[in-house]
Amino acid sequence: VMLSERDLPHVATTNYDFVIVGGGTAGNVVANRLTENPNFNVLVLEAGPSDAGVLALQVPFLCTTTTPQTLWDWNYTTVSQPGLNGALVGYPRGYVLGGTSSVNCLVYTRGSKADFDRYANFTGDEGWSWDNMLPYFKKSEKFTPPSDRHNTAGQFDPSVHGFDGLNSVSLPGAPTAIDDRFEAAIDQLGGEFTWNLDTNSGSPLGFGWSQAVIDGPSASRSSSSTGYLAREFLLRPNLHVLVNAQVSRVISERTRDGVPEFKTVEFRLNGGDTLFTASASKELILSAGATNTPQVLMNSGIGSASHLSEHGIPSIVDLPDVGENLFDHPIITLSWRVDSNMTYDDYKRNSALQDEALQTWKDTRQGVYANGISQHIGFVRVPDNSSIFVNATNPASGPGSPHFEIFVSNFLLGATPSEGNYLSISTILLTPGDNARGSVKLNSSDPFAIPLIDAGLLADDATDVALMREAVKSVLRLASAPAWGDYIIEAADSAQPGLNATDAQLDTFIRTNTRSAYHVVGTSSITRKGAEGGVVDPDFKLKKAAGLRIVDASVLPFVPAGHSQAATYALAERAADLIKATHSA
Ligand SMILES: Cc1cc2nc3c(=O)[nH]c(=O)nc-3n(C[C@H](O)[C@H](O)[C@H](O)COP(=O)(O)OP(=O)(O)OC[C@H]3O[C@@H](n4cnc5c(N)ncnc54)[C@H](O)[C@@H]3O)c2cc1C
């Protein structure tokens, strides 16, 4: 049931079983699974508007127009990033039902087996291991045929996918003119350029077809809103969703077992001055995402007592790690002007073509607009005997886990030039070093003020730039394959280094051009039960408190070696099972 302003008196007097803060990627998973039990009455409070009927959020190819600086974006900017020559970096986050899954660029990657086995080791909870999380990846996933219905045999491994879940995934929905060239390049190069049937099996090393959260038959974005809050679920009488409702804080009115118990949330509607409350008899679930969950915690007196005192906020639960330990992925894109008129660049600047592509998408669910940003993706591990690791710890999560990702786009990924056709190859540093940790801090005692975000990009001097250099060299090797010989004309930016560039030239390029891939995690990190640091226990429960769990990407103690949404869906599925088990009696 979608609620509106006129339901507020009812919201204030209802004793919900669960109140979920944030109708984003993770929040909607929990809302859906808990309301499978008709006895659980659930309220979701989402700060942003509804996503219903917004074409830009539905058409896959329009994903690059949903952020930054739009109505569906929190429109954040980081503080100055020393690793990027002091740049202030745009930092989008979804501000809409479905959260960041409604605005992201659709890439579906899970990370490696070693990532999850490291979570299990670090948290002392085997439930976080790859073998125990794979069923949750599958539970969330609905692998669908691609929109063009091409034969996908040999393009993915069905045994590692789910076909009955609520988040749709598919292979590219329209062929591009570079597909064959890319395949030829991999065949020609060898070395790190090997084939991998399915990079989402837990063993991601090698290259293969990209998978995206696109529902093939409708050629539409699959978000946590379109999937987990689909019409049939919104008809449940026990599921209540209120949009434009921004939570300021969670409130504790009593203690339980000697610790503060949180049962009530405070929020405003439509940016107004009046504060309303809603209460849960069983649990509050904080799913406001890796930038906003720590902000809501700190507004509530949960965090570093000394930081909170700077803003006059009384300490209720002293947890110094709230907002700390932020891990993000640095990304850099290299681009070339190409001898072709078959790239997608014209679709990014010619409004007549855009109208045509949109009409084709509406009429047939085919064509350019059915595709996301990439056709092929791959993962590379720097050899263990690399000189980078002589004096520095190898930051990979374990054996078989990559250091960087490479993906290929049939257009210039970034600001579109007014003319020309382009190829872009992007690389993401998947393993930021131990010192590349940023933070989220309060900037004001106003609970609705924008927080201070430090993304920690390229902040670890021991490994970050050295590994990024290897990643850029790998991209340059890929672009030098004979298959591109009569295709690539020249670098789009004359400052872009070539294969014979010195390390100093590469470093300058890297520090100048690296930006965030927006895979923010860690700010409400899980640690072992009873551990000194951390914010939540392995079962998502806030430490030193009762009645509150955190379920979103902020709980991951390290960033996975892949884009972060698949892991977020899987962890939310697991959390929902744990919450149900707690209240099964
Ligand atoms: C531009 C961009 C592109 C990306 N591309 C990819 C990609 O291609 N593939 C991939 O795997 N990952 C991608 N990511 C990352 C991925 O989408 C996120 O890691 C993931 O969706 C985070 O899920 P979450 O549940 O933690 O947070 P979110 O999905 O952000 O959910 C948080 C929700 O809480 C709401 N909220 C916040 N504060 C409050 C409050 N005070 N009161 C009420 N509600 C509140 C928000 O509006 C939001 O709806 C991308 C991220 C960005 C920003």
Automatic annotation (TrEMBL):
Q: Which positions are annotated as binding FAD? A: V96, T100, N104, C105, L106, V107, V247
Coiled-coil annotation: which residues? Answer: none
Q: Which UniProt keywords apply?
A: FAD, Flavoprotein, Secreted, Signal
GO CC list:
extracellular region
Task: Name the enzyme group at the top EC level.
Answer: oxidoreductase
Protein name, as recorded: pyranose dehydrogenase (acceptor)
InterPro entries recorded: FAD/NAD-bd_sf (IPR036188), GMC_OxRdtase (IPR012132), GMC_OxRdtase_N (IPR000172), GMC_OxRtase_C (IPR007867)
The Glucose-methanol-choline oxidoreductase N-terminal domain, residue ranges: 289-303
Q: What does this protein do?
A: Catalyzes the single-oxidation or sequential double oxidation reaction of carbohydrates primarily at carbon-2 and/or carbon-3 with the concomitant reduction of the flavin. Accepts only a narrow range of electron acceptors such as substituted benzoquinones and complexed metal ions and reacts extremely slowly with O(2) as acceptor.
Q: Which cofactor does it need?
A: FAD
Q: Name one Pfam family in it.
A: GMC_oxred_N
